[in-house]
Amino acid sequence: MKTTQDTLIIGAGLSGLTVAWKLRQMPGHSFLLIEQSATTGGAIRSHSENGFLAECGPHGFLDNCPESKTLLKETGLDQECLKAPLSKFVRYVCMNGSLRLIPQSPAKILAAPLISPLQKLRVLADLWKKPLAGEPTVSEWVRHRFGKALLPYVDAVFTGTYAGDLERLVIDGVMPGVRQLEKEHGSVIRGLLKKKKAADKKNSGKKKGLPAMTSFPQGMTRLAERLTEELNSDKELLTNCPVSSISRKNGCWQVETAGDTFLGRNLVLALPVNRALALLASLGDPPPQAEIAEARIVTIGLGFGKGASLPPGFGYLSPEQEQRFCLGALFSSNMFPGRAPADHILLEALVGGRRHPERLELDDETLIKEAVRDLRELLDLPGEPAYARVLRPRGGIPQLEAGYPALLQWRNALMQKEKGLYVTGFGWEGIGLNDMIKTAFRVSEAIKQGEQDGGEESAEVKKVYF
Ligand SMILES: Cc1cc2nc3c(=O)[nH]c(=O)nc-3n(C[C@H](O)[C@H](O)[C@H](O)COP(=O)(O)OP(=O)(O)OC[C@H]3O[C@@H](n4cnc5c(N)ncnc54)[C@H](O)[C@@H]3O)c2cc1C
Question: Cβ(237) to ligand 1 under 6 A?
């Protein structure tokens, strides 16, 4: 039995590492970060080989989140990071078998010939459509408010973020802020305009623009590596140590691993939803659902030599109606320097997702062959790939589908009830790196103040970028 820590953190992915980083700033606060794998970073895993640098997990994050900016500054990573501004790096959606450029501002999107003038008028029907009751799927909700012409574009957005299925993701789960606007103002467009007016008034004179995608010369692993560097590996971090159960004993949290028992006044579960639910089951307060769906993908890094070229920009996404093998591809060597040797390009194709788990069963050779065949129909990629590598992430992307809002409410109530318990991580209040950092900051602040965390008070209206 070890000494009692102020805080035990389970999971050393970005969420747990960020909580640890913030707790280190509290003088005299003892903590222990417990990780099942040999390495930290969780879903973050950069893969460097033969001069090519690909990502098995996240490729980057937008620089529009104040907490992430603070973290970069505090760690000094703001001096190292690479940025690819959305204003320069255009994106495409595959429509009717070819790539269509998508403007990044709502006004430009509306002006572009992406949908017919009649369909644009139908979008404006949002101004008088009543909010749909219950828990509509993204697809039901978009059809109701804006008409079905927008569905392929919305599909591309949720393919790019959740690798998800808009017939199953629920709007209250994936865009709670927009749903709140709809309910408050009777229309999303009206709500957004009011919000913009208020923001313009507040920010008058300040420079506005599109955010930039952020990564590092060594890839995203650098973020996890830097957050780990400062941890005292004898006292503050335990790797190769899977937690098997948690319980509450005499006002303390007790954490069991194969060889040890740890005690903490606070317990942070910084885990993907399903891993957290597995541990929380022993507390005797059953959740409305035992687990949620996850979407798994593979990333196929493909390098090509002389003669191959990529269109300018960030990459493309393909909605399901296009019936393509790849969900999309990132034009990685366009975005950040050093991703491919001289005279080569690197693209990273994404395959699988919620709708095509069967493709993940294919062997590497077939995946590469099928991905190259698919990409060649859209891009100028003559010759055989100079480099091909299938990267298989360990975990999936949590899907916020039917019942998720009730699950989130259950978690919030549990955190209010169980003193010193904080449940954060992949799939709780979002799935992106910025969501993880933002929530980790809130959790560490609650610990600092000795308060319980009840979840996000009012849902943020997140901007959508393709
Ligand atoms: C393929 C893929 C692509 C993505 N792309 C992007 C992107 O481009 N941009 C973006 O913003 N986000 C992206 N994301 C999401 C992003 O990776 C996550 O938001 C983030 O990494 C989640 O961090 P986390 O620490 O909450 O969870 P995780 O990274 O899953 O970390 C949880 C940690 O807990 C450990 N653990 C689990 N169970 C136990 C246990 N019982 N005991 C001890 N340790 C345990 C795990 O080993 C892991 O290290 C992507 C995710 C995936 C999977």
Answer: no
